[in-house]
Write a structure and sequence with these properties.
- It is a single chain.
- With 132 residues, this protein is mostly helical.
- It has helices at residues 3-30, 41-70, 73-96, 102-130.
- α2 packs antiparallel against α3 (73-96).
- It is elongated, with a radius of gyration of 17 Å.
- It starts with a helix and ends with a helix.
Length: 132
């Protein structure tokens, strides 16, 4: 049933939903009318958090699930929780000042690399063992 990676998936999507709402709030706060995506530097930081999180979700979610299927769902969920924490720290830091985003970005990037590496290892080992 995979409850733990499912929970991590829902939490990751909720986190993304919050950063998306923050874009709307920033539009109102800084007077940036749609479809404009630039103008106020603080608004641009909020938009970058949302866009970068979307870019990272595309890699994170499949890696989380492939790792869950071929390695271990508890480990996948644990690494996924680190990814979420890293993305929250990234957003919080970026909202304060762009140079404060690196700790969160590093945490999330390492979690992504662990999930990707484990996914590759697990799928290759499964494929190799199917030939024997």
């Amino acid at each position: 049933m995979y409850p733990w990676p499912s929970l991590v998936t829902v939490l990751a999507l909720l986190m993304y939903f919050v950063v998306t709402i923050n874009v709307g709030r920033a539009r109102a706060k800084y007077g940036v009318k749609p479809p404009a995506m630039s103008g106020n530097p603080e608004f641009e930081c909020v938009v970058r958090v949302q866009q970068n999180t979307l870019e990272q979700l595309i890699i994170f979610l499949p890696a989380l699930w492939i790792f869950s299927l071929f390695i271990n769902e508890i480990w996948a969920a644990s690494v996924g929780a680190v990814w979420i924490l890293g993305r929250i720290l990234y957003a919080w830091g970026y909202y304060q000042a762009p140079e404060k985003r690196f700790v969160g970005f590093g945490m999330a990037s390492l979690a992504t690399m662990a999930l990707l590496g484990g996914s590759l290892f697990g799928t290759v080992m499964t494929a190799v063992s199917s030939f024997q």
